[in-house]
Write a structure and sequence with these properties.
The chain is mostly beta strands and 229 residues long. The model has no long low-confidence stretch (mean pLDDT 92). A nine-stranded antiparallel sheet has the order 3-4-5-6-9-10-11-12-15, with no helix packed on it. The protein is built from one helix and 15 strands, in the order E-E-E-E-E-E-H-E-E-E-E-E-E-E-E-E. The chain starts with a strand and ends with a strand. The chain has a single domain (13-225), classed as Porin (Beta Barrel). The longest helix has 5 residues, at 100-104.
Length: 229
């Protein structure tokens, strides 16, 4: 979780993630790098999210959205534990939007509410969940590639068999960690997300218009002090 404060700009959230991961793996002998694996992942956020500078109406909340992944497949880990890969031909993805206002808007890919076109009365509430079944690929690489420079690269690709198979959801994180000296550390982080189910909105001619999915990009530079005793 992270926040920032700049001159002339109100306090803003820069990072917000709550995750739980669980893996069960089995291999036939200790010489093999391959495991039969089952994985579970849950993620959501701690606090409300806003489209800054507007902080009157939240565009996301805790458990709105929340994501769960549950699947089985095969996992590879090299002997040095610097590279890992997971292939799952059968993974269930569940998107939860446990806020009725956001669910009625169809936020984060759930089915939106239906209103009477004449009276604008609510006919059917928006659904609070969306379930998908698809293929999941995950990989991770972490190693000191140069002296005092460590690369941590993580990639996740998911495609739903039922709806638009071949359209891939992407979650890619890359972080470079630098040991400047005994007391100073620095890091550069890039995070790219693309979810085909999340339709972005833009203001065109004073109206909010749905324009389709977009790439989300976050970049961060951090410098910190460390002291060991």
């Amino acid at each position: 979780y992270g926040i920032s404060k700049q001159d002339g700009v109100e306090l803003r959230k820069t990072d917000d993630a709550l995750q739980f991961n669980s893996t069960f793996g089995y291999r036939r002998d200790t010489t093999s790098n391959w495991y039969h694996s089952a994985k579970f992942n849950f993620r959501t956020q701690f606090t409300n999210g806003y489209s800054y500078p507007n902080t009157d109406i939240a565009i996301s909340k805790p458990f709105a959205p929340a994501y769960t992944f549950l699947g089985v497949g095969a996992e590879y880990n090299n002997k040095k534990k610097t590279f890992q890969m997971y292939l799952s031909p059968l993974t269930m993805k569940n998107t939860l939007v446990l806020n009725q206002r956001l669910a009625n808007q169809g936020a984060f890919g759930v089915t939106k509410a239906i209103y009477d076109p004449v009276t604008a009365e609510l006919i059917r509430k928006g659904e609070m969940s969306r379930t998908e079944l698809g293929f999941l690929f995950m990989s991770g690489f972490k190693k000191e590639v140069f002296k005092n420079i460590t690369l941590d690269n993580r990639l996740s690709l998911y495609s739903d068999y039922i709806n638009n198979f071949g359209n891939v959801d992407v979650d890619w994180q890359m972080q470079w960690d630098f040991v400047v000296n005994k007391y100073v550390r620095a890091s550069i982080n890039t995070h790219i997300i693309y979810d085909d189910d999340i339709k972005a909105k833009e203001e065109i001619g004073g109206q909010q218009v749905t324009v389709g999915p977009k790439i989300q990009l976050k970049q961060m530079l951090g410098i910190g002090l460390t002291y060991s005793f």
